[in-house]
Amino acid sequence: MKLNWMLALVFGVFSTGLFAQNNDIKFEKFTLDNGLTVLLHQDKTTPIVAVSVMYHVGSKNEKPNRTGFAHFFEHLLFEGSENIDRGEYDKYVQNAGGTLNANTSWDRTYYYEVLPSNQLELGLWLESERMLHAKVEQKGIETQREVVKEERRQRVDNQPYGSILEQTFKRAYTEHPYRWPIIGYMDDLDAATENDYKTFYETFYVPNNAILSIAGDIDIAQAKKMVEKYFSGIPKGKGPIYRPDIEEPAMASEIRDTVQDNIQLPAVVQTYRIPAQGTEDFYAVDMLSRLLSNGESSRLYKTLVDEQQKALFVGSFPLQMEDPGVTIAFGIANMGVSPEEVEAAMDAEIEKAMNELISEKEFQKLRNQIENDFVSQNSTVAGIAENLANYEMYFGDANLINNEIDRYMKVTREDIREAAKKYFNKNNRVVLYYMPKTPQP
Amino acid sequence: MKKLFLYTFLSLFCVASLMAQDFRKSAPKPGKAKRIQLGQAEEFTLKNGLQVIVVENNKLPRVSFQVFVDVPVRKEGDIVGVSSMAGQLLNKGTKTRTKAQIDEAVDFIGASLSSNANGLFASSLSRHKDDLLTIMTDVLFNPVFPEAEFEKLKKQTLSGLAQQKDDPSAIASNVANVLRYGIDHPYGEIQTEENVNNISLESAKKYYNTYFKPNISYLVIVGDISVKEAKMAAEKYFGKWQRGVVAEEKFEEPEKPGSRQVSFVNRAGAVQSVINITCPIELKTGSPDVVKTTLLNNILGSGFNGRLFANLREDKGFTYGAYSSMSSDPLVGYFNASASVRNEVTDSAIVEFLYEIDRIAEEKISDEEVQLSKNFITGSFARSLERPQTIANFALSTARFDLPKDYYATYLERLNAITPADLQAVAKKYIDDEDMHILVVGNKGEVAEKLEQFDADGTITFRDAFGKVIKDEDNALPEGVSAATIVEDYINAIGGRDAMKKVEDMTIVMSTTVMGQTMQMETMTKAPNKMKMTAKMSGMVMNETKFDGQKAKISQMGQNVPVDENTNKEMRQQARMFPERTYLSDGYKLELSGIETINGKKAYAVVVTTPSGSKTTEYYDMATSLKIRTVMTQSGPQGEVTVTNDFSDYREVEGFGIKIPYQTTSTGMAPVPITLKTESVKINTGLEDSVFEVK
Q: With contacts defined as CB-CB under 8 Å, which chain B residues touch A304?
């Protein structure tokens, strides 16, 4: 439950994977009467099972004066339930020899346990308790509020470059709820009342807003029975589920700013607005980002880090988001190099991608890298459970776990050049310089 | 009638739903436990002696190749670290490929390739395996160790060492090795800057030429490849690798201290103590006791469920985490328990550590505690089997350490057979709270004295950051010496009050090289307390700080940085020329805390508290009376950092009789220590007030 949302989302952007056709992942899908979607994947090679629930609620479903709720709930929902005492939730899992965790993004919240396979029922009991009647007491709220504040200090305030996402999003968006940080503003958490919590739980933590995804050493028929036993009695949500329908207007012109941080070396952060995940253009942008920064032979790395030695580190990360998102190009300057020099060198590489078609060989390299990454991402049952749930939640098609790669393979060299022209232009970006604060004497 | 029926129906329904909900009241019972089966590894040996381990697993169309060179344990002497440097240089260029060409070839097939002191690791989709093996074996057989890459790596290693100097956990881990094994044992060797500078490109090549031989190596192949294919690939790519003779050395078995021995490493200004309670143990890899000590250690302190964590963190709140480890090794194993605790609870924390170490040997552990711990280990074991690499690692250990063939297959059986009595027996056999090294890295003035009670002889052994005993640490202060006399002696040593009075302004230019770039710092001061400091990197102004006697102005790369009132207040003191002149007045507080050895010189340590309350420890050389070090705590990116400035090479400024240090080394402020050399000092050039003006 100690959340890895930030790193996971920046650096694990490609955590959605697939298999080559001959290694298809087989799964069964069904829906309970209360609207809960269930995905089952059998893999008997190791006697373990991953039990997970993905709720279709993230920071974008929050009200502007109650930010941080989705993530705060991720903490609260380890506190206990009608039948699980406070502090016991993780002990059940550990004593069974299992492990558990959770994370929150802009678009969804995800909980999972990996257990010995004879403890499947324990996992279902724990997750159904969380969905049916989680119990949140004042003491738990107060404790977790402090924990979240510590988390914010550790991950954002006290982490060099830790505020990049927050600083970027609040400038890249003016209307859309992506504009506030996932962890939220601490004042909002302080101001929340018990009724706020109740309403949030009753609105979003309902079976018709969730996907139960199970992968591992299971007997499909028996697993179905157990799922019905624990989940079919959970009532469907009563009200409508708030899904913001807010279109962020296009940027009028480039936004530039400077952020002072406790860092030693300046950094340049270029953020370009890009289309939502799953769109044709997203795949082209994704490939463009790999061209720029995947591997030591990639263009930004080779030029800025190895050859010119202007940057200590450089990377480009498209964020997969349900509504139109962003891609972040990030460079840390070497000692004695100004951010202007780093930015100029980054811009030169982007310009090159706009004006010159990439070679057939480089194109083939990208395709090979994509294939390798997809194949590798489903190496654990925990990974498979999460990927199935992701595809089902965002695209209504869990089978993309097997064939999303086709969408990448449709992208042409021309598409990549067009994506550079269309999205990597200066009027569509926020540029931040991260500068070292002067040490105070 | 109809109504009655409805009521009956309703009440039935209620009962049914109540019963249906009953299963929720408590956690469901587990099903029948599945047998945990281990995958199979195939093994064969090539003519040149290379042992090959193959774990076929077709779940994913991927394959990985690891070359593991089982370099015998050896002493590195005055070039500690040569092996890791040689290993990292392997993939930086071959006879036919530059680093860029290696990167390009690896990336083109979406693969990965890395190298270290014990060989190489590479992975890719199985259909690219021939391309991958071609690059991998080129790197293995034809490395050229490029000079430029060697220099780059040396610099990185030195920066890494410099960072460690400031890191109490790194110091503790080094000194614990010295305590356990002694400096004559390979495990007691510590890398120093001197060692790194001693490493030559030739010595790195020699390491590679001596040890990278097939007859002491393993080739581990895991993934989507049949045993037949693996055999063919091994022959084709590794068959021509030439055998060589590799000598093995014997070393004396390190012994326990024989009684409780306290060692202390001083870190001026530290707010936390790093405690390590440790000893070597005669626990050889593959010994039947290993599974028992694993379980024992799990109960004592391997994680969040351990007794140490429960006691020192959850119950007492002394620390963020307290842990222990017990490790087996082909030569000699070790026990270690550790935590970082705040200064004032250092002794109490040691009491609790010793209590828990004693208790686990003396008191029988409950069946329930043993069972839960067994569950935890079993679960982790089962989860680890999901990766085919685990099976390969088991096979590799079985071969390397000559373990019984079914060592891992019967692991859980042996785990489950352990009784509380077994645990008590191994606890008594290996760990004794009366026979341990207690090592504390921390603030001597605030902590050390209270630790004498734990030492069998009642005396603490003080050591430097490399474990060397410091004999003079406890010198008594000479008669008649006080903070005031030390400061006055210093003032006289650099020229005296009269000479100082004649200085109206001073301009000092210093320079340093940081990652190949030259940085220049010019400091102008004018009596009583005006100052201007300019830092330039390659001609560009990075930072300019001005102080007009009242207000400061700071700009960073041309951007103004807001200055708060606190900063202004501090600057009033900082901007003074020769502030030591007013140490005895003006609200300063001085305290003489003792004698310490600084860079081999005995020095008085004086804690100076400024009128605004900030503290600095200053060290004055006993022989020359000159100030040779200052240590202060400042806020940095990771919270509090300790900044140490060392001064040396004092020279007289001609015509003025004032001595100025020509070398300053600052540690803690930047990721690497920065050594500033003084280029010029000019006095009384008639600096105008306008130079210091703040608008």
A: none
